[in-house]
Design brief:
With 1258 residues, the protein is mainly alpha-helical. Helix content is 56%, strand content 4%. Among the domains are: 3-61 and 73-98 and 117-158, no CATH class; 227-424, Rossmann fold (3-Layer(aba) Sandwich), CATH 3.40.50; 611-730, no CATH class; 1177-1256, Serine Threonine Protein Phosphatase 5, Tetratricopeptide repeat, CATH 1.25.40.20. Keywords: ANK repeat, Repeat, Signal.
Length: 1258
């Protein structure tokens, strides 16, 4: 490129940049909330313009004086894909987006579109951030050569702009706008900040405040879908252990200060067991929460051995992801479209650790400075996976603070990372420990009264022997607190144990010395050491009275009080009063009790030590016994004894997998359970909780629907040796639809499947496939393996079944192709199936294999079918144009589900585009919709295709498709593409709806703007559509554009009628009051009556229990509408017990506004209408209270309607409650013989009412 061309390129960039800056300036002046985003972009533009001038200076420098660095910078500048070129593209896009009328100011509709344009601007800011370093380099190069650049005056900028103006053929108004832009460019950063400071309190709203209620609910729904583990309760409990004025030293340690000030990104706090690491982690979390700076966000997690959910790497990362997303401002869901789409199709949240790690990294980009604190890494059950993930996350984006013991595997992984060892902080630890001991000495009743000399001795001894372990100190103080005399205290001090394990041994010895405590403690500790989930105190108490060999709990050994367990076990256990959970007090307690008994321990103490295999057998057996016993006596389902059933069903079967070899005692219990379930299936459905974990639980229908239940449980949960022994003792008797091989295919592995095959099971015999919701009968084991989700042995199982001669039904290949979870590589499986004869052209419910492979959303993960499998299927003979039973082709599905690569391949392969494919592309996932439509249009797709059944155009289809509010902008871009391709903007479908109608109802405000900019006309009934949209901004926009607020339908309904014709339960997300106010301010009458004789107030009372609507009416009419007609009729129809208070308040309102004196056309008073309701026998209905309000308001109790029915007669005839009848009789209601006859004619004579009537002379 020659010098002149290079200079022109630079000047062109400056010209466009200043125009964009001018447009941004107009938004700052005219649009509320625009200052913040515009400021950021203007700063970027000023840097780019300064860099352009630097480039110009470098270009003007003689060739001899240019350095190699300058040549490199210039080469990058004029490269097609260089930073300046990419920024120029962004400027071009922004210029069209932001152009406004410089003569008459900014239109109201343009201002309204700002929040949508702001998203684009922030995306551009993100792009400029990526190129900022390059432009800064230009500035530094020029600055290093001369300081003249820093002193450049305002005149130099004006001369440059005048030079641009001289070469441009723009109008005077354009030059005026350009000059305004230059003023923004030349303003210094200090001046910009000064302007922003004056407006910040008014113009800068947080993203969360800008979210509407619908967006907030969508975000919360996705977060709930993750079902992430919440550590709030654990944090609060740990923080309560912190002594005042302790832990503060940590915040002044150099490593922490460096981490806090961004000098380092990782700190590992490590120490020995019981050294107070968790309390320090809680202190760090609390300190960070109190001192969070602008842009900082904190997420934390406590690994906890007490709960299997809080001790896995997957749960750690998942919880951190959810916290970062929850703390993000704005509608972050637009950046994670795959999550919403995955949730909407009913799939489980991501579970693979690599996927969750990627989500965590992406979620961290939503924050300027994200921080993460993780406590007790050593308590994670899959520690290697967690450590690998943390190393991956330590890329400088996240600041990590983690704590753990100094385990070898952790030391090796973190060897090169900054660490903070508590052994180096002995003085600070001693000070904290001293404060803790002094506090406990004053808080404990017995220790408080000790002489000061003794307290000082206790303090000195504990500090010298603690070796930095707070846990050890706690146990000794607990032991001292149980002393009864000075001699006992002296004995404890003289015999202080060394270390935690000796301490625990002393505690067990003390328990054993008490006559009745040993048996309780040994059983309780076995449960607490082995249980896979936390147990409540009541559950543990129930567990202790279940005995093998008994068919009922042994109440003779039940503790009189469950809390006695805490007293017996002492410092070995802890109890959380808030949650009710009891657990081992420390991880070291579990380590001690799970170890082999020390040589020094006598035989009486051996019973307290837990052998994992024996304990798991015990818990599995006791859980099964609990299920059997509770279902046998179904009347106990609501009693205290059922509390353990939830744990037994959710986790009891999991213990079977940990039983050692040659222990077959579990088999008879499983057979007994199988027999009981077959005899009393309804009892088991009734006693088993329905809302259980979908991963490890055994839901009720599984227990009752599976004929060979014992074998199923062994295959699903048991070790392979147990399966072999079961089969040796109980020969298989396979009866369709039961083939245990299908269980192994779904839940097992190759080893279990091989055992079953070797026992003679037929690989070509069908059996039950167990899914999350209902059993699917009659599938081959091969198909079951293909359909299984999350089975890591799927590939090897399919290989095994094929080697054993399995047939390949068409649904097998289809099942593999529909698996899109990304955790499995389907390509090798598909190849193997096709190699063994699977026919990709075979139809399953009309679908070919190509249909199956394209039937789900494409999220772009490496294992997506569209990249490799689709070409494989087409090469095997699958026809892209082939239609299934619904007349849908593979190309249709590829377009609808966003398989961009598949579409490209099929088009390049010569596939013929279906005439209606543009409609399917309009329903593609938001993330790929624009690409898909552009791709199809460039290939010749018909943009004007109309669906024959509905008459919809592609614009209709696009605007009918539900999407997140954050995706409206993307929809509007697609609408622009379709319109540019010739799609008609005013065409109506067979229902008479135009794209404009659908845009209004669907709240597609950006798309509506696009339609109006292209000349579309507002439909006459657009005001009704806007009312249906429930969106105040849409309604205001429609009215601003000229919609008639007084428009009536053929049935006389106004927009207010339409608004209140839909039921609404009120609450936070109801906009009806605001919408009604907007309509009435625009001239819509609230007194208009439609052809059915109903006013908007009728409908408001009937369908909207929220009183705000009534108050809106009162503001505009000053009282009840005229004519009132039967307003109270609408009130009565709204009879729902939950709305007792609302009915009473509404009645009060009508009574005070003259509504209770009116008569209906049948001469019914409000009381007649109320009492015509049948079978209103509940005192909660509020009829008696409403009746009192109406009578006090002057409504007569003696009036007769046109068929001479009195209110009292209606009350008796329609089974109203005794208080209603009593009130009427007490207020001079007409009493006659006809009334007592009516009372006696009821199906069940109502003695109290008859007695009441007779007392009044009937």
């Amino acid at each position: 490129m020659d010098g002149a061309s290079s200079a022109a390129t630079i000047l062109q960039l400056i010209q466009v940049a200043t125009q964009v800056s001018a447009a941004l300036g107009q938004y700052v002046v005219s649009v509320k909330n625009a200052q913040s985003s515009c400021d950021k972009l203007i700063k970027h533009i000023s840097i780019i313009i300064s860099a352009a001038k630097s480039a110009k200076e470098i270009l003007d420098t003689s060739q001899s004086s240019q350095s190699l660095g300058c040549d490199t910078l210039l080469a990058e500048w004029f490269a097609d894909n260089g930073s300046p070129a990419q920024c120029m593209k962004e400027f071009d896009g922004l210029l069209g987006l932001l152009t406004t009328n410089s003569n008459g100011g900014m239109k109201w509709s343009t201002k309204l579109m700002w929040p949508l344009k702001e998203r684009r601007i922030k995306a551009v800011i993100s792009t400029f951030d990526q190129h900022s370093a390059y432009f800064q380099l230009f500035l530094s190069v020029v600055n290093s050569k001369s300081m003249k650049q820093l002193g450049e005056t305002q005149e130099q900028v004006r001369d440059m702009v005048q030079g641009i103006a001289a070469n441009a053929s723009e109008t005077r108004d354009d030059l005026k706008g350009l000059a305004n832009g230059v003023q923004f460019v030349k303003a210094s950063q200090d001046e910009v900040k000064a302007i922003a400071t004056g407006l910040v309190h008014e113009l800068e709203l947080t993203k969360s405040e800008q979210l509407n209620a619908t967006q907030t609910e969508q975000l919360q729904a996705v977060l709930r879908w993750f079902n992430a583990f919440d550590c709030t309760v654990k944090h609060e409990a740990t923080l309560r252990q912190r002594q005042k004025q302790t832990c503060g030293w940590l915040f002044n340690v150099q490593q922490f200060l460096d981490w806090r000030s961004l000098l380092i990104e990782f700190v590992w706090l490590n120490g020995k067991p019981g050294a107070g690491k968790s309390v320090l982690a809680a202190a760090v979390i609390e300190e960070l929460f109190k001192s969070l700076k602008s842009g900082e966000t904190l997420a934390y997690f406590y690994c906890d051995f007490r709960n299997s959910r809080s001790s896995t790497a997957k749960e750690v990362v998942c919880s951190l992801v959810v916290q970062l997303l929850r703390n993000a401002s704005g509608n972050w869901l637009s950046l994670f479209p795959e999550l919403k789409e995955r949730m909407d199709r009913g799939a489980d949240p991501p579970a693979a650790l690599d996927i969750l790690s990627d989500l965590l990294i992406r979620a961290s980009t939503l924050h300027e400075r994200p921080m993460v604190v993780i406590d007790a890494l050593d308590e994670c059950s899959d520690l290697p996976d967690l450590l690998h993930t943390l190393i991956k996350l330590n890329d400088g984006r996240l600041r990590l603070f983690v704590t753990s013991r100094t385990e070898l595997i952790i030391r090796e992984k973190f060897a090169s990372l900054p660490s903070l060892g508590l052994h180096d902080m002995s003085d600070a630890i001693q000070d904290d420990m001293s404060l803790r001991i002094k506090s406990e000495l004053e808080a404990t009743r017995i220790l408080r009264i000790l002489p000061v000399v003794v307290k000082d001795e206790i303090l000195d001894l504990l500090l010298r022997k603690a070796d930095g372990m707070f846990r050890w100190v706690h146990c000794q103080l607990d032991r001292l607190g149980h002393c009864r005399s000075a001699g006992d205290i002296r004995k404890v001090l003289d015999t202080l144990p060394i270390g935690l394990f000796e301490t625990y041994e002393r505690i067990l010895t003390a328990i054993e010395e008490k006559e009745f405590d040993g048996a309780v403690a040994s059983r309780a500790l076995m449960w607490l050491v082995t249980a896979l989930k936390p147990l409540t105190l009541f559950q543990l108490g129930e567990a202790l009275i279940i005995e093998l060999g008994r068919h009922t709990p042994n109440n003779d050994i039940a503790l009189m009080r469950d809390v006695d367990i805490l007293d017996i076990c002492g410092s070995l256990v802890s109890f959380d009063e808030q949650s009710g959970y009891v657990s081992l007090s420390h991880f070291s307690v579990k380590e001690f009790l799970s170890s082999s008994p020390p040589i020094t321990v006598g035989k009486p103490l051996n019973k307290y030590f837990v052998d994992p295999s024996v304990a798991n057998r015990q818990l599995a057996s006791l859980s099964i016994r609990c299920i059997i016993d509770n279902a046998h006596d179904a009347t106990s389902c609501g009693s205290r004894r059922c509390r353990l059933v939830r744990y037994a069903v959710e986790s009891g079967f999991l213990h079977i997998g940990h039983i050692c070899e040659d222990d077959q005692s579990i088999i008879p219990l499983l057979l007994e359970l199988q027999e009981r379930v077959s005899m009393f299936p309804s009892n088991y459905v009734r006693i088993i909780p329905t809302r259980l974990s979908r991963i490890n639980s055994m839901p009720a229908w599984r227990l009752t629907a599976i004929p060979d239940l014992a074998l199923h449980i062994i295959i699903r949960f048991g070790p392979p040796w147990l399966l072999r022994q079961y089969l040796d003792q109980h020969p298989l008797k396979v009866i369709e639809p039961s083939n245990p091989l299908t269980y192994a295919a779904q839940f097992g592995d190759v080893y279990r499947a091989t055992i079953l095959l070797d026992k003679g099971l037929d690989v070509n015999k069908k059996g039950i496939f167990v899914c999350s919701y209902e059993p699917i009968a009659c599938v081959l084991p091969l198909t079951a393996a293909a359909m299984a989700c999350g089975n890591e042995h799927k590939d090897s199982l399919i290989t095994l079944f094929l080697e054993r001669g399995s047939n390949i039904p068409s649904d097998t290949l289809h099942a593999v192709l529909r698996n899109i979870d990304g955790a499995m590589d389907n390509i090798s499986i598909v190849r193997r199936l096709m190699h063994h004869g699977a026919d990709p052209n075979a139809l399953e419910s009309g679908d070919s294999a190509l249909h199956a492979s394209l039937s789900a959303y494409c999220f772009g993960h490496p294992n997506c079918n569209c990249t490799t499998i689709v070409p494989m299927l087409v090469d095997a003979g699958c026809k892209p144009e082939a239609l299934n039973h619904d007349r849908i082709s593979g190309l249709h599905l590829a377009a609808e589900n966003g398989h961009v690569q598949a579409i490209r391949f099929l088009i390049d392969s010569g596939a013929t585009l279906p005439g209606d494919i543009i409609h399917y592309a309009a329903r593609a996932p938001t993330s790929s919709r624009r690409t898909v439509i552009n791709l199809l249009l460039s290939a010749g797709a018909d943009s004007n295709a109309v669906t024959p059944e509905s008459g919809d155009s592609a614009l209709h289809t696009l605007l009918q498709h539900r999407c997140l509010s954050s995706q409206y902008w993307a929809c509007s871009e697609v609408a622009e593409i379709l319109i540019a391709a010739g799609c008609k903007v005013d065409g109506a479908n067979l229902s008479g709806q135009t794209p404009m109608d659908l845009a209004i109802v669907g709240r597609h405000l950006p798309s509506l703007q696009v339609l109006m900019d292209t000349g579309a006309q507002l439909p006459a009934d657009s005001i009704h559509s806007a009312a249906c949209s429930q969106d105040p901004e849409m309604l205001r926009f429609i009215l601003h554009c000229g919609a008639d607020a007084r428009f009536l339908t053929d049935h006389g309904d106004s927009a207010l009628h339409v608004l209140f014709s839909r039921s609404c339960w009120g609450g936070t997300y109801c906009n009806c009051g605001e919408l009604a106010r907007i309509l009435m301010e625009a001239g819509c009458s609230c007194e208009a009556v439609n052809d059915a004789g109903e006013s908007p107030l009728h409908l408001a009372i009937r369908n909207h229990p929220d009183l705000s609507a009534l108050h809106v009416f009162a503001d505009f009419i000053g009282g009840a509408p005229s004519p009132l007609l039967d307003i109270i009729h609408a009130l009565a129809i709204a009879r729902v017990p939950y709305f007792k208070a609302d009915r009473c308040k509404n009645t009060h309102y009508l009574q005070h506004n003259g509504g209770s004196h009116s008569l209906s056309p049948t001469c019914d008073t409000a009381i007649h209408v109320l009492l015509k309701l049948r079978r209103c026998v509940s005192l909660e209905c509020g009829c008696a209270e409403i009746l009192r309000i109406l009578v006090e308001g002057g409504c007569p109790t003696q009036s007769l309607n046109h068929v001479r029915e009195s209110p009292l007669l209606l009350a008796v005839q329609n089974d109203h409650s005794l208080p209603v009848v009593e009130f009427l009789v007490g207020n001079q209601a007409l009493v006659s013989d006809e009334i007592i006859h009516a009372a006696c004619r009821r199906g069940s004579p109502r003695a109290p009412i008859v007695k009441l009537l007779m007392q009044h002379g009937v």
